[in-house]
């Protein structure tokens, strides 16, 4: 797996990086936003892609 497609997903509530994922940067130009479970908040929160 290549490292250039690796992205970090940060919780929008507590601002902690809790997930890592891959994305195709040629097809998805904008930042990814997913609703994931945050272990620190202990609930489902929106997670945004960070640099």
List the helices and strands and how they pair.
Elements: E1 6-11, E2 17-22, E3 33-38, E4 43-50
Antiparallel strand pairs: 1-2, 1-4, 3-4
Give an account of the 3D structure.
This protein is mainly beta and 51 residues long. The chain has one domain: Ribosomal protein L33 (Rubrerythrin, domain 2). It is built from no helices and 4 strands. It has a 4-stranded antiparallel β-sheet with strand order 2-1-4-3, with no helix packed on it. It is elongated, with a radius of gyration of 11 Å. The model has no long low-confidence stretch (mean pLDDT 91). Keywords: Ribonucleoprotein, Ribosomal protein. It holds the Pfam family Ribosomal_L33.
Compact summary:
It holds the Pfam family Ribosomal_L33. The chain has 51 residues and is mostly beta strands. The protein is built from no helices and four strands.
Shape estimate: elongated
Query: What is the total tally of β strands?
Result: 4
Instruction: Supply the helix-strand structural class.
Output: mainly beta
| Biggest sheet statistics | 4 strands, antiparallel
Name the average pLDDT.
Answer: 91
CATH class: Mainly Beta
Number of helices: 0
pLDDT < 50 runs, ≥5 residues = none
Give helix % range.
under 10%
The oligomeric state of the chains shown is single chain
In the CATH hierarchy, the third-tier topology is known as Rubrerythrin, domain 2
Estimate nothing, just give the exact number of structural domains: 1
How far apart are the first and last residues' alpha carbons, in Å? Answer: 18 Å
Per DSSP, what share of the residues sits in E-state strands of 2 or more residues?
over 45%
Order of helices and strands: EEEE
Family: Belongs to the bacterial ribosomal protein bL33 family.
InterPro entries: Ribosomal_bL33, Ribosomal_bL33_sf, Ribosomal_zn-bd
GO molecular function: structural constituent of ribosome
Protein name: Large ribosomal subunit protein bL33
């Amino acid at each position: 797996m290549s490292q250039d497609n690796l992205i970090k997903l940060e919780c929008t509530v507590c601002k902690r990086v809790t997930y890592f994922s891959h994305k195709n940067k040629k097809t998805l130009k904008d930042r990814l936003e997913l609703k994931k479970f945050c272990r620190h908040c202990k609930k489902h929160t929106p997670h945004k892609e960070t640099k």
